[in-house]
Write a structure and sequence with these properties.
Elements lengths: L1 H23 L14 E14 L2 E14 L3 E12 L2 E3 L4 E18 L5 E19 L5 E24 L2 E12 L21 E12 L1
Antiparallel strand pairs: 1-2, 1-9, 2-3, 3-5, 4-5, 5-6, 6-7, 7-8, 8-9
């Protein structure tokens, strides 16, 4: 037990030492060496893949944030999504699920001065979803039903400082949404499950600005 305690103590000391060195280092970072507080900001574009209503879905979005002391961000984010087309036997045609959501984004960035670091964004907002007819070229036609919803989306990203004003990130997010209640016009039967929009998303993003 004493060996375990000593090992844990040594690990804690190493983590503290590495963190302190990272805070004071200006290698491949935009921190100034004096550690002065500063503000910045960035804008970015995001693409992602998810399962929505048990269908493959493409997501495309944008975000922008004001950065406080390199570590805390507050801004706005928005995402649009579209699933693959599937044949609907009740409507005798191909339909897809499409929509979008967005809102306030809060972000914490751990060790931003490190060339590779972690970011933890959180989006709280609202959106809309519709069940729409689609042609072979994915042109949207008549919408069978549509609905608004609330969303909370926490995430975790691995970010890389490619150059001083550009970052590349790979992340995972999870959408928590209010219940979805889309129904067929004629029968009133439910089209999608209530949790059809909830799920994981894998993302890739490029961010540009003063970090």
């Amino acid at each position: 037990m004493n060996n375990v305690k000593r090992t844990l103590f040594v690990m804690v000391l190493l983590v503290v030492a590495v963190s302190a060195k990272a805070q004071n280092s200006d290698i491949r970072t935009i921190f100034d060496s004096k550690g002065e507080r500063s503000n910045g900001g960035y804008g970015g574009i995001t693409t992602g893949y998810s399962k929505i209503a048990d269908r493959d879905a493409l997501l495309v979005g944008g975000q922008g944030a004001w950065l406080i002391n390199h570590q805390f961000g507050i801004g706005l984010a928005g995402t649009g999504f579209m699933t693959e087309r599937e044949f609907d036997s009740e409507l005798n045609n191909r339909y897809l699920v499409t929509g979008g959501y967005g809102g306030l984004m809060l972000e914490f960035i751990a060790f931003p001065q490190s060339p590779i670091h972690l970011s933890f964004p959180l989006v709280v907002g609202a959106g809309g979803v519709s069940y729409s007819h689609s042609t072979r070229d994915y042109e949207l036609g008549f919408s069978e039903d549509s609905q608004a919803f609330f969303v909370v989306e926490p995430g975790a990203e691995i970010e890389m400082n490619v150059i001083s004003f550009m970052r590349l990130s790979f992340g995972v997010k999870y959408r928590f949404t209010s219940d979805i209640d889309l129904t067929y016009l004629n029968s009133g039967d439910r089209i999608l499950e209530q949790d059809a929009l909830r799920g994981l998303t894998g993302t890739v993003a490029l961010k540009f600005g003063k970090f």
